[in-house]
Design goal:
Elements (H helix, E strand, L loop, with lengths): L8 H9 L1 H14 L1 H5 L4 E2 H8 L3 H13 L3 E4 L9 E4 L3 H9 L4 H6 L10 H5 L17 H13 L2 H9 L1 H5 L4 E5 L5 H9 L4 E6 L4 H9 L7 E5 L13 E5 L7 H14 L5 E5 L5 H6 L1 H6 L13 H11 L2 E6 L5 E5 L4
Parallel strand pairs: 4-5, 4-7, 5-6, 7-8
Antiparallel strand pairs: 1-3, 2-3, 8-10, 9-10
Helix pairs in contact: 10-12
This protein binds S-adenosylmethionine (SAM).
S-adenosylmethionine binds next to helix 9.
Keywords: Methyltransferase, S-adenosyl-L-methionine, Transferase
Protein name: Methyltransferase
GO molecular function: methyltransferase activity
Length: 343
């Protein structure tokens, strides 16, 4: 299937201003079952109209909406529109379901008070308007904020769980103790334990997060192997005794000098031959699009950087600090692995 060429700015603006209508089309296509029919395609319009008991000419216009979004490809060989054939781009149904169905990241993000900035972005850019600590504090200040934020993070952990699972064999063979720095509510650590029966994992996080990790322990495959170490990575060195340390969606929250400081602390804490793992959404057009909510919302938050970096930034940083055997493992999100020299 050919990929749709990038739209002109004018055409893109027309789609954006009609975004809520586009969502209406997509949700309807999902609910009717049209996406199930279109994705394996090609399927001709007359047959679709019969199958879904809709009027062909109306369906033609409906499918034009999907085509304008780049979501279906159409072949029309003659004047009879009922002979036009359609096929949806691969993954469309799953993508629509991910956004409008249960567990939607977008719906979770919509709970944040982004409306405080809406229509007032110019003032926000000048620093006259922004989130108060009650709206959104970074790092979270109250127990409620902590719980809400960590829950939000766990909702978007899918690509991380996937890439850690995909490479479990090579990550954990011969490893005994894993420290997940800024490891949220422990969802990743718990998942890793399911893949590595010999491993013990600790989440290192601000003390306020302890009760959330405790809840995760309860549902963990082997609660005895999941622990929590309360601490503040600004105030102290990272704890020692772990042969693997991970930063997952932690470094991108901070400016370069802070992320360097954290990676240096990990280097100091690891034993010779120890393994460092970095996973976050390294910058690509797709991931920047997925990050749109945070890019917008965090305009009003000075304490959080939210910086999608290219993977080459991290490979360069790791080399500079002295790590070796730096690899970028493939996945929905890539996983960077590196070793502290054994000698
Ligand atoms: C963006 S979240 C990522 C959570 C988790 N790794 C994930 O990907 O779902 C950043 C994490 O860093 C933790 N954190 C922030 N400041 C910290 C600090 N000073 N010391 C330790 N952890 C901190 C937060 O509590 C949070 O769990």
């Amino acid at each position: 299937m050919t990929t749709t060429p990038a739209l002109s700015p004018r055409a893109m603006m027309s789609l954006l201003v009609n975004a809520s209508k586009a969502m209406d089309v997509l949700e309807t296509a999902l609910d009717l079952g049209l996406l199930d029919a279109l994705e394996p395609g090609p399927v001709v319009l007359g047959e679709l109209a019969d199958r879904f008991d809709v009027r062909p000419l109306r369906l033609y216009k409906f499918l034009d909406c999907l085509e304008s979004l780049g979501f279906v490809e159409r072949k029309e060989t003659g004047d009879d529109i009922t002979g036009a054939s359609y096929r949806a781009v691969p993954g469309l149904r799953a993508a629509v379901l991910a956004v409008v169905g249960p567990g939607s990241i977008e719906r979770d993000r919509d709970r944040y008070p982004w409306r405080r900035l809406h229509g007032r972005l110019a003032e926000s850019l000048r620093g006259e308007v922004g989130m108060t600590d009650d709206d959104f504090a970074w790092p979270p200040k109250t127990d409620e904020q902590t719980a809400a934020f960590e829950r939000s993070m766990a909702v978007g952990l899918g690509p991380v769980l996937e890439v850690f699972g995909q490479h479990a064999g090579r990550l954990w063979t011969g490893r005994q103790r894993f420290l997940d720095v800024g490891g949220g509510d422990g969802t990743l650590a718990a998942r890793v334990l399911a893949d590595a029966p010999q491993l013990r994992a600790d989440v290192y996080n601000l003390p306020a997060v302890a009760p959330l990790v405790e809840q995760t322990r309860a549902g963990c495959v082997d609660p005895g192997r999941l622990g929590f170490v309360g601490g503040d990575f600004f105030a102290e060195p990272l704890p020692t005794g772990y042969d693997t340390i991970a930063f997952v969606r932690v470094l991108h929250d901070w400016p370069n000098e802070v992320s360097r400081m954290l990676v240096e602390k990990a280097y100091a804490a690891l034993p010779p031959g120890g393994q460092l793992l970095i996973c976050e959404e390294f910058r690509t057009p797709d991931r920047l699009a997925m990050q749109f909510f945070w890019s917008y919302f965090l305009i009003g938050v000075d304490t959080c950087v939210s910086r999608l970096r290219e993977v080459s930034y991290y490979t360069g940083l790791l080399t500079g600090i002295g790590f070796e055997r730096i690899e970028v493992l493939p996945g929905g999100w890539e996983l960077v692995t590196a070793r502290k020299p054994a000698g």
